[in-house]
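Is flavin mononucleotide placement plausible here? Inputs below.
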Amino acid sequence: MNLEVILNLAGFEALARARLPAEAYSYGAGGAGDEVTLRDNIAAFRRRRLRPRMLVDVSNVDPSTTMLGGASALPVGVAPMGRQGWFHPQAEGAGARAAAAAGSVFCASTLSNLPLEEIAKAGGLRWLQLYVHKDRSRAEELVKRAADAGYEAVVLTVDLPVLGYRERELSASSHFPIGTEIGNFPDMTFDSYDVSSPGTEHDNSLTWDFLARLRELSDLPLIIKGILTAEDAALAVEHGASGVVVSNHGGRQLDRAPATIDVLEEVVDAVAGRAEVYLDGGVRRGADVLIALALGASGVLIGRPFLWALAAAGEAGVTKAFELLTSEITTDMALLGTPRVADITRAHVQ
Ligand SMILES: Cc1cc2nc3c(=O)[nH]c(=O)nc-3n(C[C@H](O)[C@H](O)[C@H](O)COP(=O)(O)O)c2cc1C
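Reply from A.M.:
I modeled the complex. Tokens:
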């Protein structure tokens, strides 16, 4: 694989599509319903414009920051995505190692193919994404294991009480290959977990009071992923969250939910500095990252582009994706007249 020909994150998708079984590609690419939200996540970023300032000393640009207290070389992490073994045999190990080498966060999904302890061997900043099974002791056990394995945060995903109506998955019958193990639960396979109707497995009776239980289980900071309103942002903070992720699950859950960049400011205002605000959905360029920072995000997570990079070339692909992002972010910070992440303010976006 000649990765030199890849000039931007978008370049990985065609390569991935050519290599993957059609149903795996559909599973990764698709969204819910008419995919209005999926498209809007990207379009809403592209409607915004940056306001560059001139004659600032940008001889030394530094895109490093902190993400939930951990030093990160970029304000970008890998979003949690389950079943990465379907996309490349290196599975989650590839992204975890590439993120560690790039000095960025890797967020491991509950539904990873590799167990969280195996992913942790990559080192670096690790967050564990949590889905809560009807047998809540499974999630509780996972949190304790994450703390023991040196994870830095627990990310509770709250936007999947039931699976969104994902037509591309339905029409491609993109069921995970039968018998494949869920790394974190050796007694379960993806078919026994029945991801096609998670209402049967996921605990969709969860309410805000579960956050208190989660906070008892470990000292790890808690991030709530899937927040789209000021009201829920305020509730997350009141229930002890250290961070929220403004996310619509990459347009895979409620179609017609707003584009994440369109609600970022409302969430930032409601949180009012009491927690960190992250965003995912539609981030495809360094300029998108700068726009999110200008509107108040502490950093962003990126999903599909890293998945396509993984499918195209495993760890080398994800490493290349981080290189491209570093170069775009650094170039755009220089052109925006903001040599440090802290220099990027609301005044830098129209
Ligand atoms: C194939 C795939 C699997 C995903 N699996 C999970 C998951 O296990 N847990 C979770 O919280 N979010 C999951 N997500 C959502 C991502 O974490 C993230 O919110 C979304 O992909 C961001 O949008 P983007 O793909 O436009 O960057 C998944 C997304 C994709 C594309």
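Short version: DSSP finds 13 helices and twelve strands in the chain.
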